[in-house]
Amino acid sequence: MAREPLIAVIDDDEPFRTALVESLCSFGFSVRGFGSAEDFISGGQQVSCDCIVTDIHMPGMSGLDLKQLLVASGCPTPVIMITARAEPWLEDRAASIGAVGVLRKPFKSDTLISCLEKALRA
Question: Which of 6, 41, 74, 94 could form a disulfide with 99 if both were Cys (CB 3.0 to 4.6 A apart)?
Fold first, then answer.
């Protein structure tokens, strides 16, 4: 029996992170939440997850920094970035370092699921 894809959700906003984890679980994904990119890295989760959903703007290591670190270490795990900010350059910057997509908060669950399905097929 095939296992459900494991999704890592990294966001410093605890209520948002909890809601996103619960939402993805309701769609049948296995999900682990992390309050920071540093917590995610220190737990060694980058090698076991199938996709990463990370906030771009967090204290400490940003989502952009995390993606660059993953690329530098040869980690092929697809990354979806989320943000509440509207700077027009964010999407180009995220795409330039290999992010699968950028979603602006608030976003619909269906939009995230479509992006996850695309990332998991890649």
Answer: 94
Domains of the chain: 6-121 (3.40.50.2300)
Q: Residue 83: phi, psi to the nearest 5?
A: -155, 155
User: Cβ of 8: how many Cβ atoms within 10 Å?
Assistant: 22
29: left (phi over 0), alpha (psi -120 to 50) or beta: beta
C-alpha distance from residue 109 to each of 1, 55, 59, 87, 119 (Å): 26, 16, 25, 22, 15
Q: How far apart are CA 112 and CA 90, in angstroms?
A: 17
3-class state of residue 30 by DSSP: strand
Question: Residues 64-96: pLDDT tens digits?
Answer: 999 999 999 999 999 999 999 888 888 899 999
| CA torsion, ordered 104, 72, 9, 64, to nearest 10 deg | -30
pLDDT of residue 90: 87
Would the pTM count as exceeding 0.85?
Answer: yes
